[in-house]
Amino acid sequence: MLRLILDSHENISIGAETGFMGAVAATKAVPGWTYGKDWYRRIAWTEDEIDARLREFYGGMFQRYAASNGKRRWGDKTPFHTAHVAQMARVFPDSVFVGIVRHPGAVAVSLQNNFHYTFDAAVSYWAATNLEVVREGTKLGPRFVALRYEDLVVEREPVLRELVRWLGEPWSPSLLQHERVQRDRGTPRATDGSTSTRDPIDVKRASNWSRELKPENESVLKEVGDLAAFFGYDALGAGDRLPLACGAGRQWLPDGTDLLARRSEWAGRVDFEQRRPVVDVDADAVELATRLDRVERTLARVRSRKAVRISDAIRTVQHGRSARDVRAAYARLRGRN
């Protein structure tokens, strides 16, 4: 929804999700190869030089798209780009970042309904993603602001006025009528994340999810209660949010510097360096099954190699198995060859 709103501004173009930073990362560090990391240094290129080429290439693609819509400024919204913030900030040194945050219960219910997550996995995804937002956002300082979804839908005009002012853009009434702008432009009715492009901002969106919350879900939400409270939420309620301290001239959008100060205050309650596993939210069941099959086949090939089988036999001794076991394993190995 925020993407559609900002894309309705006369100067800003933000199209459908691209995931292009995955391609940037793979270009700078070729996956699956011993010399893949910083491969360009082998032919006397510096990281600054490769970044400049990547900026020219990908920036040029987005700039052309923006120009085709009569706009001068471009942006991108892709959920998994939370893992690429530092790289994006380096490749595009004049970029700024808006991290949108939402109540963990609302996110979990949405992931359950739209992507078939279990409630536990959805809450874990919320925690992992938002911890990454805090870690990377605090490094960016004034180049980053956090925006709570609930603030956006409940206090839409003052929040949007503050946001476009921070972006250095003039106010536009189109921001309050994004559904009309997108309809008149011919934007498809449904976009990424099953978001309707025709729906206006609805205050009820801030709390509708709570009607679907089940009693057994409460214990899961309690586990992320401190992180939720860091963002001003009551993990078990969809009611009022506590205000977040912001710098001068801002009421709704704490920047990276504000979050860094808040992070220091909350260090005893939240482990901000915790690394949780993240499940690919956009992968469907067939794609995940295909990936799993590919991994299992690769592991089978690796385990079939002689050196690996000998190494496994040696580890049996290290874990208390006898030398006889190793000799028997090696005899079986010779029999296969």
Assigned CATH class of the largest domain: Alpha Beta
In the residues, how many domains can be counted? 2
> Count of helices?
15
How much beta, percentage-wise?
A: 5-15%
Mean pLDDT: 90
Low-confidence parts, pLDDT < 50 over ≥5 residues? Answer: none
Q: CATH topology of the largest domain, anyone?
A: Rossmann fold
Structural class determined from secondary elements? mainly alpha
Shape: globular
**Terminal Cα span:** 61 Å
Tally of extended strands?
A: 6
Structural commentary:
By secondary structure, this protein is mainly alpha-helical. It has 2 domains: 2-282, P-loop containing nucleotide triphosphate hydrolases (Rossmann fold); 289-336, no CATH class. It has 15 helices and 6 strands. It has helices at 2-7, 20-28, 47-68, 85-91, 104-115, 119-140, 149-154, 156-167, 178-185, 218-223, 225-230, 256-265, 285-303, 306-318, 323-336; strands at 12-14, 73-75, 97-101, 144-148, 190-191, 195-196. The strands form 3 sheets. It has a two-stranded parallel ribbon. Strands 3-4 form a two-stranded parallel ribbon. Strands 5-6 form a two-stranded antiparallel ribbon. Strand 5 (190-191) and strand 6 (195-196) form a beta hairpin. The radius of gyration is 24 Å and the shape is globular. The model has no long low-confidence stretch (mean pLDDT 90).
